[in-house]
Design a protein that fits this description.
The chain is mainly α. The chain has one domain (2-74). It has 3 helices and no strands. The chain is elongated, with a radius of gyration of 17 Å.
Length: 78
């Protein structure tokens, strides 16, 4: 049962990561309008876009950490 739930949790985390990436892309489009450019060097200067990227990274890192550690925890640390 634990393995099934771990796999389910990982699937949900990956879906959350994808949704957050799509959301960050929406925020990027707003940033492009705010800075008046589509160039990455210009868009990255937008504070709100940077906040969106930070949130995305946190979700991605959570998914990576879960994938890396959950099976070991499930096995009792072995």
């Amino acid at each position: 049962m634990a393995t099934h739930n771990r796999r389910r949790a990982l699937q949900h985390l990956h879906r959350a990561e994808l949704a957050a990436a799509e959301w960050a892309d929406d925020i990027r489009q707003g940033a492009e309008a705010r800075v008046g450019s589509h160039e990455a060097d210009a868009v990255i200067t937008d504070a709100l876009y940077n906040e969106a990227l930070d949130l995305y990274r946190q979700i991605r890192m959570a998914a990576e950490a879960f994938a890396e550690h959950a099976a070991r925890i499930e096995r009792g640390g072995r």
